[in-house]
Structure formats: C-alpha cells, structure tokens
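Researcher: Following up on the earlier apo prediction. This time include the ligand. It's flavin mononucleotide, with the SMILES given after the sequence.
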Amino acid sequence: MSEDPIKDALNLMPYGFYCITSTDGDDFNAMVANWVSQVSFDPRLVALALQKKSYTHTVIQKGKVLAINLFLKKDSELIKPFSKSRNKNPAKMENADYTLSPETSCPIITGAAAYLECKCIDIVDIQGDHDLVIGEIVGAGIMKSGEAQDILTLPDLGWNYAG
Ligand SMILES: Cc1cc2nc3c(=O)[nH]c(=O)nc-3n(C[C@H](O)[C@H](O)[C@H](O)COP(=O)(O)O)c2cc1C
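Model: Understood. Below is the ligand-bound prediction.
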C-alpha cells in the first residue's frame, strides 16, 4: 500500500501482458504492453494505449499496422527482450527471432502462442501521455493450444504498469 489509494486501486486491475509488433516498410519493431483490450464486436476492434514518445508510435503512425503477440505463462522469458525501447536497444530486432504475419507483415515472435494482426484505423489523442491506437483485426493465428488462463499476464511477472 502507498499513500495514494488511486494508484493502489489502479494497480489491482489484472492485465494481460503482450508483445506489440509493428511494421513500416522494412522497419520492424516490438514492445511490451498491458493496456490492450477488445473494444468492439462488429467490426472487431482492439485498443492499445500507446506512449506518444515510443518508437512504436512512429512506426504505427507511418505503417498503419500492428500485431498483438500472446505468450504462454511458461514462455515468459521470450517476451522480456522487448521491454527496452528501440532507442535504448537499437539492436532489439536484429537479435529477435520472428516471421511476418500474412495480412500485415508484422513480426510474429518465435515462440508466441497466438497473434492478432490489425490495421490501424485511428490514433486518438486522448489529451494524456498515451494515445489510443485503434486496430481493426484482419487476421489471427494460434500456434500453441491453451486456455485464457494459460496466457501470460502482468501479475505472473510481478511487474506493474498502472497508477
Ligand atoms: C510491464 C510493462 C508494461 C508496459 N505497458 C505499456 C503499455 O501498455 N503501453 C505503452 O505505451 N507502453 C507500455 N510499456 C512501456 C513500453 O514497453 C516502453 O515505452 C518501450 O520502451 C517502448 O518501446 P519502443 O520505443 O521500442 O516502441 C510497458 C512497459 C512495461 C515494462
């Protein structure tokens, strides 16, 4: 507990933990994120709250595609290399193993359990430090079978990104 009940309550929200990949021509990037949710059934839309200053923001703004990579809990080591920014770790993608998704050519990280690939239909300035990226899902794949409870979440790692 801290002196800030809003921070404490926000940190009680259980999030998934994903690798967001993006493509602009021959530039590929991957970052970790938890502020991700489906936000419409028809059409099927997802929203990602994305740091304005991230490298991914520039790539999505230009390339207009992204993919959400989901991992099994037991594969948590596979997502960790993407937790540093491209600016701090310029070789992030050179050292990564991935293939490209069929519809949007976004990186699918080797060892991921599943992916959703999206066309970015909007980037909404919500007057905060993150923008809302809205993606229309145009493809998906499941590489490792499992249930939702087998998928990696933020609490599994004991990390947080809220408050
Ligand atoms: C546990 C954790 C969760 C994160 N969740 C988000 C998120 O939901 N949205 C976001 O924009 N950044 C999030 N970040 C921060 C980005 O991963 C970070 O800014 C990253 O360096 C961006 O990489 P890039 O500059 O290569 O795009 C999170 C970081 C960590 C460690």
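Model: The chain is about 10% helix and 40% strand.
Researcher: Noted. I'll compare it with the apo version next.
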